[in-house]
Amino acid sequence: MKTFQELAASRRAWIDQILKPWCQSASRKELLQAEQEWTDVAGKVDPNKTLWFWAWSRFPELVSPELTGIDETGEITVRLDDGRCMTGYPDARESLHGELVLVCRDPERPGRSVMEGPFSLDNVEGVLSNPR
User: Fold this and answer.
1) Which helix or strand (DSSP H or E) is residue 39 part of?
2) Is pLDDT above 70 for 30?
3) I want to staple 88 with a disulfide (CB 3.0 to 4.6 A). Which of 59, 104, 125, 127 is the partner?
4) Is 55 helix (H, G, I), strand (E, B) or coil?
5) Do residues 103 and 93 lie in contact, with contact meaning Cβ atoms separated by under 8 Å?
6) Taking a C-beta distance cutoff of 8 angstroms, is the pair 83, 38 a contact?
7) How large is the average pLDDT for residues 11-37?
């Protein structure tokens, strides 16, 4: 590499080809370790907008590329590795460090909601968008 443009292109390629795919497949434990050193690994970027966004993007129905974060606007159904399915709206403020929290309808009190979770990224097997 002889120019800054080549250096910048090489870093962008590393992010796109190595770092993002790693985040999309890493365990929560590994992601938590990476978060501690994130500025050394990824530079001066917000881990919530990069590391955790990329990690949750393994479930495209859950994230918003425009917001670079968890999308709270649509109801989803989350399938967990223990067979349970939870339906509700993601709460991005409560969903931190690889744990997802949902705001769900309270079956015992119509018109009220209840928080469910947190559910570890490692325990989520799938996410489906629910049509409005």
Assistant:
1) helix 38-42
2) yes
3) 104
4) helix
5) no
6) no
7) 95
Query: Which H/E stretch holds residue 8?
Result: helix 4-14
HEC assignment per residue over 36-78: HCHHHHHCCCCCCCCHHHHHHCCCHHHEECCCCEECCCCCEEE
The structure tokens 């365990």 sit at 27
Q: Are 104 and 88 in contact (CB under 8 A)?
A: yes
Residues pairing with 100 in the sheet: 119
Residue with tokens 């399938």: 79
Whole-number pLDDT of residue 42: 87
pLDDT value at residue 4: 94
**CA–CA separation, 90 vs 54, rounded Å?**
16
**What predicted TM-score, i.e. pTM, was given to this entire model?**
0.87
Task: Note whether 90 and 101 are within 8 A (CB).
Answer: yes
* Sign of the four-CA dihedral 26, 67, 63, 65: negative
* Alpha carbon distance 102, 118 (integer Å): 8
Taking residues 10-29, report their average pLDDT.
Answer: 95
Distance between CA atoms of 11 and 67, rounded to whole angstroms?
23
Distance of CA 109 to the CA centre of its chain: 30
